[in-house]
């Protein structure tokens, strides 16, 4: 699936200390690559964008990879009987652009599956920490990892006996997927195959052998608090990522909330996803209007919400350092439009745009082509979104208290 998405693409060869969502079983972070409105052959999709005043170039724009240089390197390597994707990856690696990447055709096929919210794996997310360390970011409810007692924050030490410290995120994920087996040819393992993981929690170390299985993710979870302690009842909408159908599920949850009842939109740990789904989610709370502006190769465009959203219901948005990309775009739109109180900690700051193109050997190069801004003109890349209220502990309780001040309740 090569289309308009925004999130964090893992680079096989290298990746900095960036937080990366990885549903172990499918490189979901790669599936949500930040590619914007273009197919792999370079055709733009999604209709003609609307022009807006050109945004100032982001500070990182100078680091963007030269698309022609990448294509030329791949073509030259192919003529010499060498790997075009490896040659392209070398050009990308020298650029210093942390978000451009080269993927194999099989990886991109896996990304397409991830956009539908299903994968074969053990049901956890990973993130890079410290000096090359790897830890569990979240666990899928009911998945193999949760059943084995694995919890967020657990350090991943080895996978099938291989020390993963300092290894690229994508290599670790491939081991967890079972792709690095002999003769695997980068095909994911089947459900039921085992993977042995060594972990550490505090001073305790232990091993677990998990069986991979087909895991279906729920990108949206909804629950309702009954209030109490003079706090009004609220509906909490937790959005884990913007996979296909997420925007409509958010809109359904808002429509199902009791009249006048406040909504807590929880975007903590959300790595982004399909851009169209983030805009659709924004439409649940806005009556049309600007969601974001962006530039592609210096050409300005804009994104607009659909009319008819609920503009009166009290709204609090929860964010943290794991709120990224399309989730930041949504947060910035609701904040700049005065539609929500944003509560939590500063978001990650991934506001660059990547577009995919096919290389001669069928692999895909995702290269940075521009950056987006909030409706108020704020650049997100490298800066993130600063919440209206900084909260590091007890965020949900604080959100309910804020909701009371906004007049939420039925």
TrEMBL record:
Keywords: Hydrolase, Protease, Serine protease. Residues 117-177 form the PDZ domain. One of its GO terms (molecular function) is endopeptidase activity. Transmembrane segments: none annotated. Gene3D superfamilies: 2-enoyl-CoA Hydratase, Chain A, domain 1, 2.30.42.10, 3.30.750.44. Residues 38-57 are annotated as: Disordered. GO terms for biological process: proteolysis; signal transduction. PROSITE patterns: PDZ (PS50106). It comes from the Bacteria. One of its GO terms (cellular component) is outer membrane-bounded periplasmic space. PANTHER family: CARBOXY-TERMINAL PROCESSING PROTEASE CTPA (PTHR32060:SF30), TAIL-SPECIFIC PROTEASE (PTHR32060). Belongs to the peptidase S41A family. This is Peptidase S41.
